[in-house]
């Protein structure tokens, strides 16, 4: 995982554990702003099957804080801003 | 080098080095404490009978440290502890070595036992660390999930107990403190007896 910030007009997204397996990368930069409600469909376009196989069991953080995804697919929810750090948090397996 | 956070009588750390139980005991040692409980989680050589060659842990480190600290503060308060410390190892951990150490100190032993257990269960439910089990051979590694049924990538042939998924798949929100699928944690003996 690199610690560099996203370039202008982008946010950084981090993939951990099984998420990294799915995307074959630890992180990448995606265009910002992006409504959080569109995050899963954006990722599904890039990584077919990721939504059903992985994302639906994941939580999301924005700048280290857990955020709620809108329940209704038509709602956009909070806006991911340029420079934000978003992370896909699969079910944990610490210990 | 360990990454660590310290606040009041709470200490948390993530490290790629071997874990040292003596130093973790010393972190919570206090003249106010009559008991120190140490929990050491060690890496097992099999998963459901299948031999495991080694384990590998990765983490969202800044997020995991915050979660560990929040768990410490909550457990410290719930059990009126003197002090609490948690360290988790990352990277490759060979079989039989410690992957997590939790130490708690308290005036009396009952609170220390209970707090140690609660801290561990909370860690396993919430701390942003992921474990991959390497089985060796052609199969490659499998990401594990602590939640029953919330298996990582794929588990060939393993029939694990899966809870019935809700209308939106398994429920995967971080658990509320004390919520472990067996009802709330009941503190049977909240008065402190002499240790």
TrEMBL record, chain A:
Residue positions where Glycyl adenylate is found in the record: 95
Gene behind this protein: cnxG
Positions of post-translational 1-thioglycine modification: 95
Listed transmembrane segments: none
Cellular localisation: Cytoplasm
GO molecular function term, any single one: molybdopterin synthase activity
Pathways involved: Cofactor biosynthesis; molybdopterin biosynthesis
Role summary: Acts as a sulfur carrier required for molybdopterin biosynthesis. Component of the molybdopterin synthase complex that catalyzes the conversion of precursor Z into molybdopterin by mediating the incorporation of 2 sulfur atoms into precursor Z to generate a dithiolene group. In the complex, serves as sulfur donor by being thiocarboxylated (-COSH) at its C-terminus by UBA4. After interaction with MOCS2B, the sulfur is then transferred to precursor Z to form molybdopterin.
Xref: SUPFAM superfamilies: MoaD/ThiS
GO biological process annotation, one example: Mo-molybdopterin cofactor biosynthetic process
Alphabetized Pfam families for the sequence: ThiS
Highest classification ranks of the organism: Eukaryota, Fungi, Dikarya, Ascomycota, Pezizomycotina
Primary subcellular site in the record, as a coarse category: cytoplasm
Entry's family note: Belongs to the MoaD family. MOCS2A subfamily.
Keyword entries, A-Z: Cytoplasm, Molybdenum cofactor biosynthesis, Nucleotide-binding, Phosphoprotein
InterPro entries: Beta-grasp_dom_sf, MOCS2A, MOCS2A_euk, Mopterin_synth/thiamin_S_b, ThiS/MoaD-like
Name of this protein: Molybdopterin synthase sulfur carrier subunit
KW Acyltransferase (keyword) present: no
Cellular compartments per GO CC: molybdopterin adenylyltransferase complex; molybdopterin synthase complex
Post-translational modification: C-terminal thiocarboxylation occurs in 2 steps, it is first acyl-adenylated (-COAMP) via the hesA/moeB/thiF part of UBA4, then thiocarboxylated (-COSH) via the rhodanese domain of UBA4.
Subunit: Heterotetramer; composed of 2 small (MOCS2A) and 2 large (MOCS2B) subunits.
Automatic annotation (TrEMBL), chain B:
Binding site for substrate: 108-109, 124, 131-133
Annotated region described as Disordered, given as residue ranges: 153-195
Alphabetically ordered keywords of this record: Cytoplasm, Molybdenum cofactor biosynthesis, Transferase
Reaction catalysed by this enzyme: 2 [molybdopterin-synthase sulfur-carrier protein]-C-terminal-Gly-aminoethanethioate + cyclic pyranopterin phosphate + H2O = molybdopterin + 2 [molybdopterin-synthase sulfur-carrier protein]-C-terminal Gly-Gly + 2 H(+)
One MF annotation (Gene Ontology) recorded for this entry: molybdopterin synthase activity
SUPFAM superfamilies found in the cross-reference section: Molybdopterin synthase subunit MoaE
Highest rank taxon of the organism: Eukaryota
Keyword Zinc: no
Pathway it works in: Cofactor biosynthesis; molybdopterin biosynthesis
Subcellular location: Cytoplasm
GO cellular component: a single term: molybdopterin synthase complex
One record GO biological process: Mo-molybdopterin cofactor biosynthetic process
EC code(s) of this entry: 2.8.1.12
Function: Catalytic subunit of the molybdopterin synthase complex, a complex that catalyzes the conversion of precursor Z into molybdopterin. Acts by mediating the incorporation of 2 sulfur atoms from thiocarboxylated MOCS2A into precursor Z to generate a dithiolene group.
Subunit: Heterotetramer; composed of 2 small (MOCS2A) and 2 large (MOCS2B) subunits.
Family classification: Belongs to the MoaE family. MOCS2B subfamily.
Protein name stated in the entry: Molybdopterin synthase catalytic subunit
Organism encoding this protein: Hyaloscypha variabilis (strain UAMH 11265 / GT02V1 / F) (Meliniomyces variabilis)
Underlying gene: cnxH
